[in-house]
Specification:
The protein is of the alpha+beta class. 34% of the residues lie in helices and 20% in strands. It is built from 25 helices and 39 strands. The strands form twelve sheets. Strands 10, 11, 12, 13, 14, 15 and 18 form a seven-stranded mixed sheet that branches. Strands 2-1-26-27 form a four-stranded parallel sheet, covered by helices on one side. Helix 21 runs antiparallel to helix 22. The two termini are 61 Å apart. The mean pLDDT is 91. The chain binds one RNA strand through helix 7, strand 11, strand 15, helix 10 and strand 35.
RNA sequence: GCCGGAGUGGUGAAAUAGGUAGACGCACUGGACUCAAAAUCCAGCGGGGGCGACCCCAUACCGGUUCGAUUCCGGUCUCCGGCACCA
């Protein structure tokens, strides 16, 4: 009888003790394979997303182990971060204690799922042995000018009580809490990721193993645009206002210029303005709007600066306006306005009654005046002096070149990407290793004094970081002058830790370096990385950046961390609710397609299928599932129900089906244990058993191919087919039995990466070697060769017949057989015009 | 608005390079075993027509390329995701 509880525990203990999954390092002669799943935050609660993510990785790792690779399959904990702090505030437990307890708990859960990790490399980012190296990187980056401090407007989450990076804000909403983000002006540390913008963009083209959507998301995020800087002289001074534009073809249509109120010119304009109070009021209003608002589609408003500029080509006087929609941080903060060909400028011109000058006409018919909206399509230039008649697409370059030749402009490239703000005004993170000295300013801690340790025994009196109230932490001496100084009390964004953990895994215990260059260059890049798509522009962009920095600092000899990326879909489920709110799945039952509560049989509303979430109670606890069906069933289901990159819809019936399949395997293998033990595979099989023999070897080929393509669902279905075939097969001779034995043995070996416990147990029952140390089976070409093949006969592309012919039949022979048949009633002309033969597959008769 | 991706039975999904559409699973139906039920095993299962070996329709919709299109091309619709006052 298949008893998953006993079997799974037994094998988990064996694997834990044996160290079979340990990576052997750079000295091992075998080819390496680095299999990595995004490491978890140790929340203490395992959810189905974890089960799915790590099950996918485990199949691949176990496959490559048995294919003879030196596999690095590590695990660790992304253990700094806010939840620990929030728990500390609520429950009065120090974050360190809470975190370490959760790690212990999650480690047990991972054992329970039978994952093939190299536990000897387990790493937690909240340990000083880990984050000390991050502090060293920080200082070296600082010395290289890749880190700087800036007082600027940032995103502030009132719930997190800290600053967030641009990447951590989605539509003005905190990525964690879903609460609105405020704007605040705060001094904080930045990583100069913009310095790498071009390389981050260019290298995307060299990552064929990444999904297109992730690459596209990163391209969007980096947001490169090429254009022209054009200088406009002030009418009343020698100063210049430079604009950035991607539409130099519309330069002759400029009727005003708009600028951001945050621009450095503003102070001077205010001073000189006769209506200073009014201007100040406008500026304050716009700034307030920028700080508070999340909806960016507010009404366009402006204010005349009192200044005029000279158009660089026509010499006309052009008014300069403040405009609330001009972004200070993009381009130069000043924009040339072409109301006829830009909708924002059009709206603005209408409101303030500014001239609208058409300079591009569509090729077919001229625009009807007055315009009702801006014309933004390409066309032919008009009202543009020497450029009249030029196609607007050509005029971009012509006008740009002309302006540059006149010395009034230059080519410019702008990125949407902003520098990465990494300061967090929170406690549970890596201390930023910087010191403020009244005499020497802000200076880095001495390398030999690292790590700057985060005190772990702390008490929270409120939401603010306890570090700010701990003189024993922040009081120090200046590493330069030796005088009294104070430490930085902000900590780093936890995305810094996750930017390089995959490299630490290569040499996780190194006491005097973050990792050995030799080991990291050998094991990296990660051959296969697996995680959720939600990290497409956060973690995955940061870690690419960090890798390039570490390469430039001489730590690593590669510039991209991940060769192949798989973004797995979410685990989803319908939700249930009634008047009193959401209900857990085990509080309802189904009858005739409708749902009712268990408690009082009242009807239940069914919500749409969405990501499992605690708030909607549409969750299944992996622990209950493992308890009821076992880890093998849980793993098999998440792999079988959908391809890994798609969302997976949870279905209890589907789980049941997978469990049933494992029983079917058990029930056919165990009675045949003796023949599996005794009978050796045959080199050649003829007669009745040939079909099963071929099927067995076809399945070996298919399962291997499908695992390598990440089509686990079809790999599993191929094994199911083979199991079904063994059920149908009734052996009569000794040879028949040998074929059956081989099939069953093969099923155990192929199924192992998906369901490792039951297959090891069956192997033991059948007297086979332990599967972890048994190579993945290979197929015999001989078995794949068939005597007969089925040729499909189409007439004009429609299936009409099938014939069975010898595999050695020539095209002429097949064609003759087909022509001998009568297909006249399907032929339009009544006679055969042409016969197309696709060797081994089909014949299409055309006529 | 711009940029990606997807749309296949009652249902989760297959179809690797344009070649038998719906493998495998679930649900359902029937049968065997059983006093009975469960479990298990066996069989059927896109829609329509015919007693029938068979025929017609069908991969969101319209059109094209091709001997042949779920697959390639153009257009339309819907859904999902990313970016968005970026000049």
């Amino acid at each position: 009888m298949y008893d998953h509880k006993e079997i799974e525990k037994k094998w988990q203990e064996k694997w834990r003790k044996s160290g079979v999954f340990e990576y052997k390092g750079a000295d091992d002669p075998r080819p390496k394979y680095y299999m990595l799943e995004m490491f978890p935050y140790p929340s203490g609660r395992l959810h189905m997303g974890h089960v799915r993510n790590y099950s996918i990785g485990d199949v691949v790792a176990r496959y490559y182990f048995r294919k003879g690779f030196n596999v690095l399959h590590p695990i660790g904990w992304d253990s700094f971060g806010l939840p620990a702090e929030n728990a500390a505030i609520e429950n009065k437990i120090p974050p360190a204690k809470w975190t370490y307890a959760n790690i212990d708990n999650m480690r047990e859960r991972f054992y329970q799922l039978g994952f093939s990790y190299d536990w000897s490399r387990e790493t937690a980012t909240c340990r000083p042995e880990y984050y000390r190296w991050e502090q060293k990187f920080f200082i070296e980056m600082f010395n290289r000018g890749l880190v700087y401090k800036k007082n600027s407007e940032v995103n502030w989450c009132p719930k997190c009580n800290t600053v967030l990076a641009n990447e951590q804000v989605e539509n003005g909403i905190c990525w964690r809490h879903g609460c609105p983000v405020e704007k605040r002006k705060i001094e904080q540390w930045y990583f100069k990721i913009t310095e790498y913008a071009q390389e981050l963009l260019d290298c995307l083209d060299k990552l064929p193993g990444w999904p297109d959507n992730v690459k596209e998301m990163q391209r969007n995020w980096i947001g490169r645009s090429v254009g022209t800087y054009i200088d406009f002289k002030f009418a009343d001074s020698d100063e210049t206002a430079t604009v950035f534009t991607t539409r130099p073809d519309t330069l002759m249509g400029v009727t005003f210029v708009s600028m951001a109120v945050e621009h450095e010119f503003t102070a001077k304009f205010l001073e000189e303005a006769p209506n200073r109070a009014e201007m100040q009021a406008f500026i304050d209003e716009v700034k307030r709007l920028h700080l508070e608002t999340r909806d960016e589609n507010y009404e366009k408003k402006g204010f005349f600066t009192g200044k005029y500029l000279i158009h660089p080509l026509t010499g006309e006087k052009i008014p300069l306006y403040f405009a609330n929609f001009v972004l200070a941080g993009y381009g130069t903060g000043i924009v040339m306005a072409v109301p006829a060909h830009d909708q924002r400028d059009f709206d603005f011109a209408k409101k303030y009654d500014l001239p609208i000058k058409i300079v591009i006409q569509p090729e077919d018919k001229p625009l009807a005046e007055p315009l009702t909206e801006a014309y933004t399509e390409p066309g032919i230039l008009v009202n543009s002096g020497i450029f009249d008649g030029t196609k607007s697409t050509d005029a971009k370059k012509r006008i740009s070149d002309y302006v540059i030749k006149e010395g009034k402009g230059r080519i410019g490239i702008n990125y949407r990407l902003r520098d990465w703000g990494i300061s967090r005004q929170r406690y549970w993170g890596t201390p930023i290793p910087m010191i403020n000295c009244p005499k020497c300013g802000t200076v880095p801690e001495k390398i030999e004094n690292l790590p700057v340790r985060l005190p772990e025994n702390v008490e929270f009196s409120g939401v603010t970081s306890p570090l700010k109230d701990m003189p024993e932490f922040y009081e120090t001496t200046c590493p330069v002058c030796g005088g009294k100084a104070t430490r930085e009390t902000d900590t780093m964004d936890t995305f810094v830790e996750s930017s390089w953990y995959h490299m630490r895994y290569c040499d996780p215990k190194s006491p005097d370096a973050p990792f050995s260059r030799r080991e990291v260059d050998h094991a990296m890049p990660v051959d296969q990385y697996i995680g959720g798509v939600e990290h497409a522009v956060m973690h995955l962009l940061y870690t690419r950046f960090f890798t390039k920095v570490l390469a430039d600092l001489g730590y690593v000899g590669f510039r991209e961390p991940v060769k192949n990326l798989l973004t797995q879909g979410m685990v989803c489920m319908e939700s249930y609710s009634n008047d009193s709110g959401y209900l857990y799945p085990d509080e309802v039952y189904k009858k005739d397609g409708k749902y009712f509560t268990v408690s009082d049989d009242s009807p239940v509303n069914v919500g749409r299928v969405e990501k499992m979430s605690k708030s909607k109670k549409n969750v299944v606890d992996p622990l209950q599932l493992i308890d009821k069906y076992g880890a093998d069933t849980a793993r098999l289901f998440v792999l079988f129900a959908a391809p890994p990159e798609k969302d997976l819809e949870w279905s209890e019936d589907g789980v049941d089906g997978c469990n049933r399949f494992l029983f079917r395997v058990w029930n056919i293998v165990v009675p045949n244990a003796e023949i599996i033990n005794k009978l050796k595979p045959l080199d050649k099989v003829d007669g009745a058993a040939k079909e099963l023999w071929s099927k067995t070897h076809e399945t070996i080929k298919k399962v291997g191919d499908e695992i390598e393509r990440f089509h686990f669902n079809t790999a599993i279905s191929a094994i199911m087919e083979l199991v079904n075939a063994t059920y149908k097969f009734k052996p009569e001779t000794e040879d028949d039995k040998a074929v059956l034995a081989e099939s069953l043995r093969t099923i155990i070996l192929l199924l192992n990466p998906f369901a490792p416990h039951i297959t090891e147990e069956l192997a033991e029952i059948c007297g086979m070697e332990q599967i972890v140390s048994t190579p993945f089976p290979t197929f015999s070409d001989e078995a794949l060769v068939k005597d007969e093949m089925t040729i499909v006969i189409q007439v004009n592309g429609k299936l009409r017949d099938k014939i069975s012919v010898s595999t050695s039949a020539t095209a002429a022979e097949v064609e003759a057989l087909v022509r001998a048949k009568d297909f006249s009633k399907f032929l339009k002309s009544g006679e055969i015009k042409k016969v197309i033969y696709v060797p081994g597959k089909l014949v299409n008769v055309v006529g």
